[in-house]
Amino acid sequence: MTNKNPSMMDKSDLSVRLSIIKSTTLGLLLSSLFITGSAFASKTEAPMTGNELEAKDVGDTEMNEELETNAEFASGLNWWREARFGCFVHWGPYAQLGNTWRGRKGGGYAEHVQRVLEIPMADYKADAVDLFNPTKFDADEWIDLIKKAGMRYFVITAKHHDGFAMYDSKVSDYNIVQQTPWKKDPMKDLKIACDREDIPMGFYYSHAFDWGDEFAPGNDWEWENPGGKKSLFGGRDWAKNNPEKLKSVQENYVNRKSIPQLQELAANYDPALLWFDTPSKLPESENKRILEAVRKAAPQALINGRLYRTSEGNGGDYLNTGDRAVEFRKLDYDWEAIPTTNESYGWNPLDNDYKTAGFLIRVLAKAVSRGGNLLLNIGPTKDGDIDPRDVEILEGIGEWMAINSESIHGCNASPLPPQSWGAITSKDKVLYLHVFDWSNQPLTVGGLLTDPLKATLLTAKGDVPLTVQRTTSQDVEISQPNPSVKSSNCVVRLEFSEVPEGETIPLLDHLGDNRILAFDATLHLGEKTGMRATGFGYRDGKRDNYAVYRWKKTGQWMSWEVRVNEATRFDIALRYGICKGGEYELRCGDWNVVRTAPSCEGSIPWIATPQIDELGSLLLPAGVHQIELRAISINEDELIRPLELWVNPSASESKKELKKEQ
Q: Mean per-residue pLDDT for 213-225?
């Protein structure tokens, strides 16, 4: 077969290149490694215990914010950047169990049921593998559904952590053709369907975690293996402390199964992308060997950032946010988010926490507006069809994409600051305004320095012209359309005669609510030198976890710059996840408020129910202001984990009263 996707470059040279990124606005000296065709992001790890360690097992749970993409190695990303929206599929014999085994319920991720319930291999084979008979599977139906949803690439689990190959593997007979009554290779059919529809197809492959192999990391409930919950052989340092165990893993797992199966996938299915996970289960040396083997076997394939993670950074052609992220930071490199339609990746009939199509459309717009891709996951059922709830979501997204896809495909990050009403994507001389909530007033676009030529609202019945006028040197106003043509995520196309430019300071809406994310704050690290010393940084973007964390020093603080066009009194509230508590101060000019944060109860404080502190009202005159959040005292090891500021106009104030106060 011939791959339709451009090759990144000749990857025969696998030497490691070192590049130093100079100090950023955070005052950090960051290093970045480049393997030919790969990029690395600097990252700091902290010791973890309990549930946090388990969260780490399924991938990165911290955002990687420190990579500067090397353009020489990025040409192969063109199709991926153009796509912006893809489909992720977690499917395997774990779907047969539906996150339940012999009356016991598994954890949040249904694909982890074998590990969570410590199911012995013989029982997993008997109750899941031997009964897995997905006769309703139809590759053409799958790909037709995702194409209509506007998804432009497709990634599916060829082997997840259970070690079971979902294709006809000659390396291991633990595969769908030889072990199930179905005896078919769905990857072959999906590849044909993807090629027919010109959709690049990729594979998720669990290279380091394999619960079905007695020589691989992960399964410590049945075999004495490292990489599991028991932290055998010294936990994460198992390879360094146990050379004989490392040699056994090298010879009996990596050389015998992991690398050969990846070579097999490359040779037989010509993947456009290879998606890896949990690199911490193997030492750096083995991850690097696997990377080199993959580059040689599949030079055309893109590689995500969860294959080779060293103490210096992460490897891959682009990086990933943590699992299930819904809020994002604007970053200067290629990245991908992997939300899922409910809260599990594998099919979980016990999980009814499904998002709406409208919610996920907003997540998609936010990701693209900040320069990333969205790989939205669904989990097919044990019968091989797509859960009706997922079908409804994808069809809803497809209806919106049929009208608005030009605002997603081929688009890039916004050159403007965050907007109170939604998000902005860009493409050459066009801005696309994604209006999440258009109230009954004209739309103000803040921080736009270039004059638009025209504005049109995208609708199912065609473009609707809107009036656009400049109101200040930094802002324009767009007329209110007829309410009957507005949707929950309206898109306005704003056209220019040149590439539009913007400023960096967001404009506060003096008539509507403003939500200021911690992700958009500037972090001040205090006396320590760099994030490696302090850990003060950003969390992964999950629901209720788009926070700043590891706030352990009173010298650390965060700030936001905001702009106001006319004097306005705002009611201020801080939303945060609590940890060990202490005192904090919010200040702006001469105004300040001190509050005590309560101590958090429970073993996982970062997902405790977020608190909302109402901090009073603040009069902001017209102009630019800096809002600061500072620590006064910190109990034990962490203060709070700020999520966002709510800055909303005080309903009781009139302009006449405001003028008196000034």
A: 96
Element spanning 19, H or E: strand 16-21
- Tens of pLDDT, residue by residue over 423-449, are 999 999 999 999 998 887 899 999 999
Digit-coded pLDDT (tens) for 603-649 = 555 556 889 999 999 999 999 999 999 999 998 788 999 999 999 99
Alpha helices (runs of H) in 426-506, residue ranges in sequence order? none
What gap in Å lies between CA 576 and CA 643, rounded to an integer? Answer: 5
Where helices occur in 270-404 by DSSP H, the ranges are 284-297, 357-369, 388-404
Q: What is residue 353's three-state secondary structure?
A: coil
Rounded Cα distance, 64 and 90, in Å: 24
Query: How many whole angstroms separate alpha carbon 432 and alpha carbon 436?
Result: 12
What's the CA gap between 529 and 535, in Å, rounded? Answer: 11
Beta bridge mates, 273: 202, 302
Q: What is the C-alpha separation between 384 and 391, in angstroms, rounded?
A: 13
Cα-based distances in Å from 416 to 273, 345, 456:
32, 34, 19
With vertex at residue 443, the alpha carbon angle to CA 442 and CA 444, rounded to the nearest 5 degrees, is 115
Mean pLDDT, residues 85-106 taken together: 98
- The token duo for 20 is 């130093």
3-state secondary structure of 68: coil
Buried b (16+ CB within 10 A) or exposed e, 482-504: eeeebbebbbbbbebeeebebbe
Do residues 210 and 163 make contact, with C-beta atoms less than 8 angstroms apart?
Answer: yes
Helix (H) or strand (E) holding 585, with range, is: strand 582-588
- Report the candidate in 76, 110, 105 with the shortest Cα–Cα distance to residue 93: 110
Place of tokens 């040409």: 75
Residues 186, 206 contacting (CB under 8 angstroms)? no
Residue 10: CB partners within 8 Å, gap ≥ 6?
299
Q: How far is it, in rounded angstroms, from Cα 386 to Cα 383? A: 9
Alpha helices in 250-387 (DSSP H): 259-269, 284-297, 357-369
Tokens of 271: 């993947």
Distance of alpha carbon 200 from alpha carbon 194, whole angstroms: 7
The CA distance from 288 to 310, in Å, is: 9
Give the Cα-Cα-Cα angle 580, 583, 588 (nearest 5 degrees). Answer: 135
Supply 164's token pair. Answer: 């079971």
Residues 6+ apart with CB under 8 A from 609: none
Tokens of 378: 């669904």
Prediction pTM value: 0.88
Rounded-to-integer distance, Cα 185 and Cα 601, Å = 49
- Mention every residue, 6+ apart, whose C-beta is less than 8 A from residue 368: 84, 85, 374, 408, 411, 412, 413, 423, 425
Which DSSP string corresponds to 321-343? EEETB-S----SS-EEEE-BSSS
User: First CA to last CA across the chain, in angstroms?
Assistant: 72
